[in-house]
Amino acid sequence: MGLIVQKFGGTSVGDVEKIQNVAGRVAEEKQNGNGVVVVVSAMGKTTDKLVEMANELSSSPSKREMDMLLTTGEQVTISLLAIALKEKGLDAVSYTGWQAGISTESVHGNARILNINPNKIKNDLAAGRVVVVAGFQGVTDNGEITTLGRGGSDTTAVALAAALNADKCDIYTDVTGVYTTDPRYVKGARKLLGVSYDEMLELANLGAGVLHPRAVEFAKNFGVTLEVRSSMEKERGTVIEEEIAMEQNLIVRGIAFEDQITRVSIIGLDNSITSLPTIFTTLANNHINVDIIIQSGTGTDKANISFSIKSSDLKETLEVLEKNKETLNYESVESETGLAKVSIVGAGMISNPGVAAKMFEVLAAEGVQVKMVSTSEIKVSTVVSEQLMVKAVEALHDSFELSNVPVQA
Ligand code: ADP
Ligand code: ASP
Ligand code: MG
């Protein structure tokens, strides 16, 4: 008998009928002779609606209370699913994050899982029970309830699969797998049969919302085999594991993109050896996440530094820079909003020079100006105008032959 962790996202548990459908998928797995742990998200758009309500009451609601609020969403789903499972004649029990033994660091809104004590769940499994766990939540050593960041139920599922040494973790969602790019934006996107951990980690970090980046990190570190598949269709999904052969010898596996990016430029910075650490330490101390960094004018006594951030961090970034103007010793700050990041990802790049060059040529031919670039062994990211984002993705999708990946059912 094996052990399977199944995770069902918000759309898959969007109403009572869908919860019944999920109960059916769980029952099938149980009938196959497997032990089953199920992780669920809040129903439909519940989390968004809760966030909206809090924002109506305050422009900066307490992070502790936000966690208190948002964790209620998942608590509704676990109880309803356990009720539906019992109705099907299965023995089932639902647990919140803390009941399931999920300990996190003391950070509200984006906590990391530090430890899982799986004893309670193991006892239930030994007794033949299906265990239903609330995704996206945990508890600190002080008994404070935390959340794992938006989309974090994936991470709960993979972390539980690692702690329980499960044979597999299935992520059930509203698409049939991981596609060459987001199928909601690009009609020609193709389902992939496999993606390696490293590629998936890049895709997830670069904006492919289909998996929470930390879930992929856990899967890689603990060797958990993941499959992303549909909660409605019975077709096979996309397997994520260590080594995956490239389909049709392609160089690029997928394209990720993210809108609402802003470029900030600090002009006339004193070109001393301490300028760079001072700026980025100041930003880091204020929890501002900086992405691509470009420094220019290094041969002179004044340098310029540009970096990209999420547009939602712009106000705070400008405030921090203004507050520390004297220490940082710069002349002025400029910013450009309305940008997007478009990235190509693929393990095939390691052994193929000229991939970045080809990407720039394709974008230039489409009239898409590249404003910033960053590369790693298996990705090239460009910052472009937000208005041209989808056009850029479509052109790259065709030029790197992703539209030729065979259609899989
Ligand atoms: P869930 O609520 O099940 O966690 P999400 O909305 O978080 O579902 O993730 C599924 C969505 O991810 C899809 O509807 C799709 O629009 C989006 N997505 C982005 N990039 C990709 C990709 N490369 N492949 C598949 N889906 C993607
Ligand atoms: N309900 C949470 C969210 O909407 C967590 C999740 O669905 O993964 O972000
Ligand atoms: Mg998700």
UniProtKB/TrEMBL annotation:
Q: What is the protein's known function?
A: Catalyzes the phosphorylation of the beta-carboxyl group of aspartic acid with ATP to yield 4-phospho-L-aspartate, which is involved in the branched biosynthetic pathway leading to the biosynthesis of amino acids threonine, isoleucine and methionine.
Write down the species: Mesobacillus maritimus
- Pathway(s) served: Amino-acid biosynthesis; L-methionine biosynthesis via de novo pathway; L-homoserine from L-aspartate: step 1/3; Amino-acid biosynthesis; L-lysine biosynthesis via DAP pathway; (S)-tetrahydrodipicolinate from L-aspartate: step 1/4; Amino-acid biosynthesis; L-threonine biosynthesis; L-threonine from L-aspartate: step 1/5
From the UniProt record, list the reaction(s) this protein catalyses: L-aspartate + ATP = 4-phospho-L-aspartate + ADP
Q: Which InterPro entries match?
A: AceGlu_kinase-like_sf (IPR036393), ACT-like_dom_sf (IPR045865), ACT_Aspartokinase (IPR054352), ACT_dom (IPR002912), AKii-LysC-BS (IPR041740), Asp/Glu/Uridylate_kinase (IPR001048), Asp_kin_monofn (IPR005260), Asp_kinase (IPR001341)
- Give a yes or no for keyword Amino-acid biosynthesis in this entry: yes
What are the record keywords, sorted? Amino-acid biosynthesis, ATP-binding, Diaminopimelate biosynthesis, Kinase, Lysine biosynthesis, Nucleotide-binding, Transferase
Citing just one GO molecular function, the answer is: aspartate kinase activity
Q: Which domain of life is it from?
A: Bacteria
The reply on keyword RNA-binding is: no
Query: Top-level EC class, please?
Result: transferase
Q: What is its EC number?
A: 2.7.2.4
Tell me, what's a Pfam family for it?
AA_kinase
Coiled-coil segments, which residues? none
The family database entries (SUPFAM superfamilies) matched by this protein are listed as:
ACT-like, Carbamate kinase-like
**UniProt-recorded name of the protein:** Aspartokinase
- Of which family is this protein a member? Belongs to the aspartokinase family.
Residue ranges of every copy of the ACT domain listed in the record: 264-338, 344-409
